[in-house]
Amino acid sequence: MNIGIDLLKTPKEVLSTLCTKHGYPLIKIGSHQVCKVCAKENLEQTNREHKEELQQKLLQHRIHSSGLNQRYLECGFSNYSASTIEQQQVVECCQNFTQQLLNGSKSNLILYGTPGTGKTHLGSAIIRNVIYKTKMSSRYITSAQIAKTIMNSWSIEDQSEEQWIQFFADFDLLVLDEYGLHDRHSSRLELVHKVLYKRYDMMKPTMIISNFVLDALETDLGMRLWSRLHENQLITLPCYWSDYRMK
User: Fold this and answer.
1) C-beta neighbour count of 221 within 10 angstroms
2) Which residue segments constitute the domains of the chain, with CATH numbers given?
């Protein structure tokens, strides 16, 4: 029973007994006895709890709508296993990058290295922190998924390539995973680059995750795009340590 709400709509009886907390006459509502201040506090508490519940549901909706799959929904900085100095330095740099995003930075980040080093985990942690601490929109997607989505629009009457490029460019943060894995056809790669160019034009920060070595990434992205990624600071973090999946 919400006593505060019932006080407004239920027949009540004012008693001669005073509230021991507030000193006001108690009001009998059904089987409850409460003063007007207690009733107000009860209503305010109920409203706060309802607001907090709605905020938690909204946060969970944003997390589940971010593109993260089930495996990475709970990935954070706190549950990333950093047992070496190199791992600790990469985690710290990712945390600093996240804080810069929260402060309005437009910088870009590249995590590159061998499989199983936790690059996607760290990308997921950045997305989760951005969503929990700001109203910024964040999206995780693979390079191949971007290309496939845009190419599918070619055969759909009410969709266009430009609409989807704009869709991916609009996110405040885009985490682009598996760059260089399943996007090797020139037409696919061109579409991914169009998204990156559009995000550059809109001054939106992008995180790229790849198994390429850095020189191969520079060559694959091309001189013009590589230059643009540097304009607002490009942070490159190598991830070369043992594959945790193989332990």
Assistant:
1) 23
2) 3-63 (no CATH), 75-246 (3.40.50.300)
Residue (of 140, 144, 166) closest to 70 by Cα position: 140
What is the value of pTM for the model shown?
0.79
CA–CA separation, 136 and 103 (whole Å) = 11
Other Cβ atoms closer than 10 A to 4: 20
How much is the pLDDT for 112? 98
Asked if residue 119 has pLDDT above 50, the reply is: yes
- What SS3 class is residue 29? strand
Return d(Cα 227, Cα 34) in angstroms, integer.
69
Instruction: Give pLDDT, residue 183.
Output: 87
Length of the chain: 247
Torsion angle of the four alpha carbons 230, 231, 233, 234, in this order, in degrees rounded to the nearest 10: -20
